[in-house]
Amino acid sequence: ADQQAKGLPPAPALATLPSRARWQALITRAHLALETARDEMQAYADERSDAWQQSERAAALADQIEALSTVLDDLETLSAG
Fold it and tell me: CA 21, 78, 2 angle in degrees (round to 5)?
């Protein structure tokens, strides 16, 4: 009921839960999407001027890139399990 109130489809019955292979495929897709975002963010930062590199916006973007790298490391650990 909570999921439907949020506009989400109802949860499947226990017997029809996705298999481990499906979960691994979803984790792999998430990893690829986050890796792409991180790489594009890094390329964006690398292409900026030296003055931009010293700005607060550059520091904030660097923090986001670092956070994505941490998430990617965690996903790799999850995939290995």
Answer: 75
DSSP assigned state of 55: S
**Residues whose CB is less than 8 angstroms from the CB of residue 64 and which lie 6 or more positions away in sequence, other chains included:** 41
Neighbours of 47 (CB within 10 A): 8
For 22, residues 6+ apart whose C-beta sits below 8 A from its C-beta are: none
The number of helix segments (H) and strand segments (E) in the chain equals: 4, 0
DSSP character at residue 48 = S
Structure tokens at 39: 């790489």
20-35 tens-digit pLDDT:
887 888 888 899 999 9
CA angle at 14 for the pair 11 and 16, rounded to the nearest 5°: 85
The tokens of 66 are what?
């670092």
- pTM, rounded to two decimals: 0.72
